[in-house]
Amino acid sequence: MPDNPAIQGVREAFLAQFPAASSDQALKALHDAFLSRKSGQLTALMKTLSTLAPEERRDFGQAVNTLKTEIETAIDEKRAALEATRQPSGGVDVTLPGRTLPMGRIHPLMRVRRDVEDIFTHMGYEILEGPEVEDDFHNFEALNMPPDHPARDMQDTLYLDAPVAGGTWGAHRFEGGQRGTVPEAQVRAATLLRTHTSAMQIRYMKTFPPPVRIIVPGRVYRRDNLDRSHTPMFQQFEGLVVGEGITLADLKGTLEAMMRALFGEGVKVRLRPSFFPYTEPSAEVDVSCRACGGSGCGTCKQTGWLEILGSGMVHPAVFEAVGYDPDKYTGFAFGMGMERVAMLRYGVDDIRLFYENDLRFLEQFPV
Q1: 164 within 8 A of 175, measured Cβ to Cβ
Q2: Which residue in 58, 151, 212, 265 has its CB near the most CB atoms, within 10 A?
Q3: DSSP state of 53
Q4: End-to-end CA distance of the chain, in Å?
């Protein structure tokens, strides 16, 4: 028998509202509207059974139950479909556009260090790191600093009491990208925090024969008061080249190439005679002032020049300390502070800013 017009009307009403129900709340409202025991439209239909003739009640009841099953099935299936596509709590909706996350910045001292390492890696140098706790032999004696040298005084050097057991020192990065460690036969009793990275030059030369071409960056320590231009811990890098026929001209050419790479092609470089215990002859190296272009200003004290590093030809006494023949080999060495380069490069007038972790300062540098 065809559906009663009242039943067909309820079915059509449900089918009209069903497509728009796209959430749990909408499906619950649809369920209550048609299946609620108190106010549902199917409940209202069932209440009309008493008004029908006895022979019509059975078919009418079956038709109402069939419609009830259809509505329940449709609502359950749609609820299951919504559940299947629902994003889990705490999950990521991959259809949403990506969000740009804040980027960290390379610290200006680390940027200088990476630039220096890249410059000398392209020149064929090995990049080494060594221990920060050193002994007197490697830090002073082998570098031709006699026992009465002022650098050994307590007011300049941070001495330690605790000895250090045998260990290894290693190549942080070798030429060609290779890495490795070189065993030290015996690490002497450590008595100080290294005052320069030159100690690593001694360790290297005592292990490897010439030719030598190395750069040693790292932290060093001295008894300096903290002010605009001094700090008791700072970073420096030192270079060493040893071979046959190495001359002062090779040193000058290397330094000029390094300065152009760090400060630009227009930078001028000059060498002034100086004195260092482990080099002879020795030279201080100046670069033209970046603030005034060499014309003279307050930054360069009206000279047009800024002191940048110390350098010289390796003293024969250093070669004798490591077992090199000073009659056969010559070499040059140089050392420079990372902070000094960064201050000149970025126009920073206070070394303390590099170590205060002030985001207002650090965020001024490029990402």
Answers
A1: no
A2: 212
A3: -
A4: 79
Q: What is the secondary structure of 162-220 as a DSSP string?
A: ----S-EEEESB-GGG--EEEE-S-PPPP-EE-SSTHHHHHHHHHHSPSPEEEEEEEEE
Query: Which pLDDT belongs to residue 326?
Result: 94
Cβ atoms of 264 and 344 within 8 Å: the answer is no
Q: Where do the domains of the chain lie, and which CATH numbers do they carry?
A: 5-81 (no CATH), 108-362 (3.30.930.10)
Residue linked to tokens 């390492």: 117
Q: What is the DSSP letter of 309?
A: E
Task: Give the model's confidence band at 142: pLDDT under 50 very low, under 70 low, under 90 confident, else very high.
Answer: confident
CB contact at 8 A, 256 and 287? no
- Cα separation of 225 and 352, whole Å? 11
Radius of gyration of the chain, Cα coordinates, nearest whole angstrom: 41
Locate the DSSP E strands across the chain. Answer: 126-127, 133-134, 168-171, 180-183, 192-193, 212-221, 233-243, 269-276, 279-288, 305-314, 330-337
Helix axes 54-85 and 5-17, enclosed angle (nearest 10)? 10
For residue range 80-93, what is the model confidence (pLDDT) as tens digits?
A: 888 877 766 666 77
Residue type at position 94 = V
Q: E strand or H helix at 338, and its extent?
A: helix 338-346
Residue 4, SS3 per DSSP? coil
**CA 225 → CA 48, 146, 172, 175, 221, distances in Å?**
100, 25, 31, 38, 12
Which H/E stretch holds residue 122? helix 108-122
0.85 surpassed by pTM: no
Contact present, 327 and 244 (Cβ < 8 Å): no
DSSP 8-state assignment for residue 52: S
